[in-house]
Amino acid sequence: MPAKPAPIKKSAKAAAKEEKPAEPVPEAAPAEAPPAEAPAEAPVAESAPAAEAPAPEGPADEAAPSTNAPAEAAPAPAEAAPVEEPPKPPTPPPPAVPTSAPQNLSVDDVNDSSVTLKWRSPENIGSGLDGYIVEYCKEGSSEWVAANTELTTSNRFVISVLTTGDLLNIRVVAMNAGGRSEPVVLAQPVPVREIMDRPKIRLPRALRSRQVKHVGEQINLVIPFCGKPKPVISWTKDGQPLDTKKVNVRNSEKDSILFIRKAERDDSGSYEMTVKVDSFEDKAALIIQIVDLPGPPSSVKLVDSWGFNAALEWTPPKDSGNTEITGYTIQKADKKTGDWFTVLEHFHRLNATVTDLVMGNVYTFRVFAENKVGKSENTAVTKDSAHIQKTVSAEVVVPCPVGIVYKPPEYKEHDFSEAPKFTAPLNDRAATVGYNTKLLCAVRGSPKPKIEWLKNQMIIGDDPKYRQINNQGVCSLEIRKPSSFDGGVYTCRAKNALGEATVACRLEVKQVAIQEEKDRK
């Protein structure tokens, strides 16, 4: 029986391992009397492996099951009573950490009763950010005073109700659950006073040129400026203070408005605005021109009249309407009807000739002056009238007075007849197969010569391959998509009653090199 010793080895080792947890259970032995002998035989089982090698016998095989059974049953009570571990205590939360100091604290604005600050948020906010506390301390004192009773979440704060002339050290602290952060402090104390900015007038581009307005128009000019503290504004006209009865000035913190309800000619001039802060000032000049209709020409007179014409002269108006005269309008009136008709308009000279007058009528003339506003309301009228005399009819024969009679010279009529003559010859040409080409020449002659084109001394005629044009003596022959057979000598022949003339040229039609290679292949 060679297979039985292997289980004995395994059961002996298992019994040795399982006997140790079975020792704490002493109550199991008195319950069962027969198996109590098994522990006494356990040492024999332990020594069995040593005697097993020399001679395994039959009685030993029978003892193995008896010793193995109680050894395997012993661990059962140990598995039924596991030992429980005690619960672990909870992990405590991490301690709250304050933020880093706020960044880039600077002064945004200062006046005589407040200081405006601005800063950036801390780089590291730690356990969060609840807000900021702004504190200040007067120069020479060690007591820091909180400017805000409640935390501010904004990165800008105004410290108000300050005393003019105080010198303040200012700092800002960030707050969170971890407490106060390191403060950020201004490098220099801040004096509580108005910071002076030099005055500057920001004159709009549209106001930098002359302002031209009509009489009766409203004027409303807005001129922005800057300066700190609030500048003192003053206006003058032509170096003199403004007349407040005619011109109104309204000043604000940022601009000044010049207002004239109804402009008059006297309002024209040079206006100057001055902005002054302490000893600094800035000036800007405005030129306002109020224009009106011009007056009539100073005088107008009839210089002469002849045939159906009348010559007039006049002088410029004394009142130009505060702007240049752009022209004149001349009108005529027949004494029979008294109606005025415009003869010339926008006329620039100071003299004019009126034509196409009706014979037998008597005419009076008047002249208007014009400027960019319009025509003058009044006119200058001629004192004298132009009498257009009636002329003698051509059918009435009037005896000529005795004297020298003028005989016009007789001129022989010139004969312009000429035989055809080419003024531009034909030139030899080279053309490419498939590409249109044109031959050109020029001819003159009187009467107009007849043009004929020939190829190799043969008249081309109305062949559709050719297009013949003769325009003002320029003759052209267009050859449409010529082939190699269209080469040769081309002649242009001009003929009229007085003779004929010819010119000729040679046309060579070449093939494209690529086409020649294809043909060879």
List the helices and strands and how they pair.
Layout: H1 5-22, H2 28-31, H3 38-52, H4 58-73, H5 76-79, E1 103-110, E2 115-120, E3 131-138, E4 145-146, E5 156-159, E6 167-176, E7 179-180, E8 184-185, E9 190-191, E10 197-201, E11 211-214, E12 219-228, E13 232-237, E14 240-241, E15 248-251, E16 255-260, E17 269-277, E18 280-291, E19 300-306, E20 309-314, E21 327-334, E22 340-347, E23 351-354, E24 362-370, E25 380-381, E26 386-387, E27 418-424, E28 429-432, E29 437-446, E30 450-455, E31 458-459, E32 466-471, E33 474-479, E34 488-496, E35 499-510, H6 513-520
Parallel strand pairs: 11-18, 28-35
Antiparallel strand pairs: 1-2, 2-5, 3-4, 3-6, 6-7, 6-8, 6-9, 10-12, 12-16, 13-14, 13-17, 15-16, 17-18, 19-20, 20-23, 21-22, 21-24, 24-25, 24-26, 27-29, 29-33, 30-31, 30-34, 32-33, 34-35
Helix pairs in contact: 1-3, 1-4, 3-4
Describe it for me?
With 521 residues, this protein is mainly beta. The protein has 5 domains: 5-24 and 36-72, no CATH class; 103-191, Sandwich (Immunoglobulin-like), CATH 2.60.40; 197-291, Immunoglobulins (Immunoglobulin-like), CATH 2.60.40; 300-387, Immunoglobulin-like (Sandwich); 418-513, Immunoglobulin-like (Sandwich). The protein is 12% helix and 40% strand. It is built from 6 helices and 35 strands. The strands form 8 sheets. Strands 3, 4, 6, 7, 8 and 9 form a 6-stranded antiparallel sheet that branches. The protein has a 5-stranded mixed sheet with strand order 11-18-17-13-14, with no helix packed on it. A hairpin with a 2-residue loop joins strand 17 (269-277) and strand 18. Helix 1 (5-22) packs across helix 3, helix 1 (5-22) runs parallel beside helix 4 and helix 3 crosses helix 4 (58-73). The radius of gyration is 64 Å and the shape is flat.
